[in-house]
Amino acid sequence: MNPADTLMWIKTLVVAGLATYLSIFVLNNITDPGTNSAAIPRMMTMRELREDPPLGQGVLWRAIESPAVHRVAYLLVIAVQAVTALVLWYAVILLVSALFTGGTGIALAVANLGLALFVALFLGFVLTGLWFTYWVKMGPVQQSHLTLLLVGLASVVVVNLAS
After folding, report:
1. Are 138 and 47 in contact (CB under 8 A)?
2. What is the pTM of this model?
3. Total domains in the fold of the chain
4. Percentage of residues in the chain having pLDDT higher than 90
5. Is there a cis peptide before residue 53, judged by omega within 30 degrees of 0?
6. Degrees (nearest 5) of the Cα angle 5, 90, 156?
7. Per-residue pLDDT reduced to its tens digit, 117-130
């Protein structure tokens, strides 16, 4: 196997790994809705900040108490995760096909689209969380989001390495 093919397999593996990760994430959100559907109102209501003055008292005006908004946010997250996973899986199919046919242009373009969605998802989590000041009381959640943002950015670099 030549080095270009090896690199293409690595690119395929990275994209497949992220597609699998998001697929499991969607599955978990559907089969165990209580876990993440509880985290969203926890963050958006900012109740832990409200209950622990003086932390965050200047930003409590940002809190959203509406269960309907929390539900829409939860469903939007699942939808974005599902679409991103599907785009990444399509990229995997195209990347594997490109390994045997040689044409990588569209495969890499679709992979980059999927990776852009992945990065946007986790950047959105970080920015939304920052708006609701989640780092004060939900540090591990923020760390997960930041880590996945970095994983997404590193994946963009790997997938775009010249063959």
Report:
1. no
2. 0.94
3. 1
4. 80
5. no
6. 60
7. 999 999 999 999 99
